Amino acid sequence: MFKKLLVIVITISISPVMLFANWVHQSFEFEGHNREYRIYTPPDYSPAKSYSLVIGIHGLWGSMYDFPNAVSDFQKIADTANIILVYPQGLDNPAPLGTGWNSSAGMLGLYPSENINDVGFINALTDSIQANYPIVKEQTYLFGFSNGGFMVQKIACEANNRYAAIASIAGTIGNKIKDCNPERKVPIIHFHGTADINVHYYNPPMGKSVSSLMRLWSENYNCSGREITTLNNIMSDGYTVERYLYKDCDERLELFRINNAAHILLNKAQNDISYPEEMWRFFTYKKDTAITVNIHTQQESKINIYPNPTMDIIKIELKYIEKHHQLNLGIFDYSGKEVQSIKQNESGIYQFDCTQLPNGIYLIIAQYDQTYLSTHFIVAR
Q1: pLDDT digits (tens, 9 = 90+) for 333-374
Q2: 377 to 54, 211, 242, 330: CA distances (angstroms)
Q3: 306 vs 90 pLDDT, higher one
């Protein structure tokens, strides 16, 4: 298939220590309150290894027990991608508010945990986990849903220096936040359903609309515009998904608009996208993902793949290759055997079903003109 022979040498180190995956309930005192959280370590956890840290913030009336179940795809990713997951618990509020966070979002004079320093608590929790577990600090990420989405956006505005990237779901910037222009620019991705009646897509009373949220960040990040892609509509869930990729920004910025979706979390089993998978793709994206083997052109191109590791589907993005270039795209195992060749299409987005592949490491090679690009992914179940 390709004009050149690529010789690839890899060394794989497999730890012989296998432990059981573990959920632990912990707490500490913070500003006069007992603050609780749950922490998940993957099955092969070892203090001798290094881990990413992902912290998830539940919504109003939620808990550190039900939220991990609602985003259970993240636990599957954590089991193969060296992630420690942490889910803190919001404090109780009088009815009708229930458990929640001081996100500066509210209505009718009702603001959850209005006098609680939740920004300080979440940052103190981050510091504690980083100090007591083998965390790579530069791989610390934060996400939240609904009231938790408002909470992580507040942290993005006020105290984002601990986080490599932030994701909000169905929660924008609260109406008590009058100024959001942080000195540090952190990658941000947002997910929102257009039929959300809890936090309206177009005009929520407790905070900014989605368009106002994205305009604020795109102006703050000096973006030049945006590129809209409609994802393949495969699952019969009644939704279509549009991905807005903001261009030429000082920092990465994305929006997933879920047409007809309510105040829900999308997952792999039922929907075209999994929020945890898309968040992990965004969190771990690196500009140098592609390895250029032989370049005789100045055009910048890259391979973006997600989720990685995968259990079934791998998605490949090569949207920057001009249509007039003839693209050869193949997937190889590490013995050099080609397991699949993929035909070029106009969208530059490709999907490969890995369900028949055994666990292991696989190589993607793209070739056009005299340019070769490669990257690898892992199948792990």
Answers
A1: 755 678 888 888 877 888 889 888 887 778 888 887 767 777
A2: 21, 35, 25, 13
A3: 90
Q: Distance from CA of residue 44 to its chain's centroid?
A: 22
Chain position carrying tokens 């945006």? 226
**Residue 16, Cβ density class (10 Å: 0-12 exposed, 13-18 middle, ≥19 buried):** exposed
Residue 89 CA from chain centroid, whole number:
21
Evaluate whether 238 touches 259 at the Cβ level (below 8 Å): no
Q: And the tokens for 143?
A: 């996400």
Buried b (16+ CB within 10 A) or exposed e, 100-121: bbbbbbbeeeebbbeebebbeb
Classify residue 207 by its DSSP letter: B
- Structure token digits, residue 257: 């608009």
What gap in Å lies between CA 274 and CA 266, rounded to an integer? Answer: 5
Q: Supply angle C-alpha 334, 347, 374, rounded to 5.
A: 25
d(CA 370, CA 53): 40
Residue 202: which residues within 8 A CB-CB, separation 6 or more? 194, 209, 210, 211
Calculate helix-pair angle for 147-158, 118-132, nearest 10 degrees.
80
Closest CA to 153 of 183, 177, 137: 177
**249 vs 33, 185, 298, 324, CA distance in Å?**
40, 10, 21, 27
- Dump pLDDT digits (tens) for 247-295: 999 999 999 999 999 999 999 889 999 999 999 999 988 654 332 333 2
Q: Which helix (H) or strand (E) holds 69?
A: helix 66-70
